[in-house]
Amino acid sequence: MYQGLEENFKILVIEIKKQLIAVKDCLMEPENNSFSRVISLGNYIDNLKNIILKKAYFSIIIQKPEERDIMFIMSLNTITSNLERIGDLCENIARQTTYIEDKDNLQIVDFNKYFFEIFDSSDLIVKGFIDTNTNKAIKICRSELIIDRFYKEDFAILLEKMKVGGHNTRDFLALYTIIRYLERIGDALQNIGEAILSAAAGTRLKIYEYTVLQDSLNSDEDRIFIEDIGVETKSGCRVERIKKNSKVENQNNILFKEGKKEKLKREDENLQIWSNFFPELVPKTFGYIEKEDKASLLLQYIEADNFQQLSISEDSKTIRESLSRIIFCLNEIWNKTKIEKEAKTDFIEQLKSRIEDIVIFHPELNIEDNSIGKIRSPSFNELLEKCKDIEQNLFCPFSVLVHGDLNTDNILYDKHTRKIYFVDLYRSCYSDYVQDTAVFLVSNFRTPIFEDPIRSRLTDIIIEFLYSIKEFAKSNGDYLFEIRLSIGVARNLTTSTRFVHNKNFAKEMFLRSNYLFSKISNLKKSDFKSFVFPERILIL
Amino acid sequence: MSQSKDFNFESIQDVDSVINNLKTMSDGFKKGELIFKHGKDEIVLKPEGMINLQIKSKYKDGKSKLVIKFKWKKQVEKNRNALIINTCL
């Protein structure tokens, strides 16, 4: 550590302990008048914190630290700030004791148990951090649970006594405020414990996430290494890759996904369904755990390229191979999971719910009605209303298991084993296969590369994929495929503009979508079966 | 004070729809009135007098472009008595 930083840190912890002792004195032995001592210690703690942070920032500038060192310094920052917070809370507690008129009332709460727990935890901070000892960190975190329990018990006692009456209300309010501050000291300890875990793991980590990892990996080891793989998810999940032993490459590589409970729960359930049908097609799950509205999912880390990367960088042979595999797999999935239940889509409703976001992102898109002489082009909303009525009359004669978000970056291809994997299955369900078809087609179209040979390769992919799916539709007696596909493609062209930063390209996609919708809106019921999807709409 | 009104409409159409649009505009020229609407806004153009017609077309690498542009100015009524030139010296 940077010049004397470790020493300063140790002193800070000692000063906090002194302050805790002083505040305990205020509560347990009020006659000692320790209030002024608590306040004077507070000033020194603030100074120490500033010295530590200054040195930490200097060390970043001077020592050119590696990523792991930066996490260490970030953790030091968190710990120091939370120690100072404990100091502030001590001052607040001491101040509250001065409001208590009848000092005997201080005996209503057993403060000893709180301080026993807090001292126990603060004894672990220095060693825990300097040795990045995760067991100590977990113990520090757990004291928050214990202190929380004490708080709840004492709160109930105070409430009960106040209901009975005959007590000094002012004293009781001060007592309540004191236990509330003690409970907050518990929160600060948890933050400190988590900061030590983060320093050990090399990434920001919460206590419950860490215990999930340990439990799921059955790890007796002290440390789990986590690597940021730079995955950006559109769904707001955090994704990281975990190695149980950083020295051994490709061993026990696991993907750690953290996000909203609702999404990850569905993904976990869907993965079970998929692995029953196609165990080789989806990543294995190693663990799933929920906490409040969040959840964590541990998945097999698949070392492969996604189809989007392949389509713009690899040779045409690999693209052809992977595309054939995708088409083959989709046919197999749809044939194997096909059930005799009509499937209906709600593309228009999905689009309507997103239109506001789209306009915010691309305010230049023209969604109003326009007239040139007698020729009127309806507004986008009018078109959607008309097409919604049409969509309600359409159906697929059967249902299949669909991926639900078959974007090209959700399909992985391992060119060595020639295996395909589907990932991000949280939207999967039994539905119309047109859903996956439209998403895949538009996903290729919206790849923001306009020059040959890549653009013409993307067009080849689109056409080959489209014709093979048309073949599937035909052989399965699905006569309304093309009109449903048109609505699906139009819907995806518009919704995808949210991911397109190039304004001209976003406008082009929107205009193409508008063209499709206006074509469909003019159809009569008798035209539905004969309608042909205008494939030129996906050719740039 | 200058008055400015704009109409800007872009769409993707097939050849049949383009023909319809051109016919409508040609009708407008015949009637002497072209009406364009965007939402609640309306702009009425009245072709008159001498009209500047500019046609630009381009073909490159399979991409075609055709720009037709009309320009004219509102005709100001001239009062023959407004300017009296005295030729008597």
Please describe what this structure looks like:
The complex is a heterodimer of chains A (540) and B (89). By secondary structure, chain A is of the alpha+beta class. In chain A, helix 5 runs antiparallel to helix 6 and helix 13 (434-445) packs across helix 15. In chain A, 60% of the residues lie in helices and 10% in strands. Chain A is elongated. Chain A has a 5-stranded antiparallel beta sheet, sandwiched between helices. The relative contact order of chain A is 0.07. Chain A folds into 3 domains: 5-205, Phosphate transport system protein phou homolog 2, domain 2 (Methane Monooxygenase Hydroxylase, Chain G, domain 1), CATH 1.20.58; 226-300, Phosphorylase Kinase, domain 1 (2-Layer Sandwich), CATH 3.30.200.20; 305-538, Alpha-Beta Complex (Aminoglycoside 3'-phosphotransferase, Chain: A, domain 2), CATH 3.90.1200. Chain A starts with a helix and ends in a 19-residue tail after the last helix. Helix content of chain B is 19%, strand content 31%. Chain B has one helix spanning 15-31, and strands at residues 34-38, 41-45, 52-60, 63-71. In chain B, the strands form 2 sheets. In chain B, strands 1-2 form a two-stranded antiparallel ribbon. In chain B, strand 1 and strand 2 (41-45) form a beta hairpin. Chain B is elongated. The interface between A and B is medium-sized, with 17 and 18 residues.
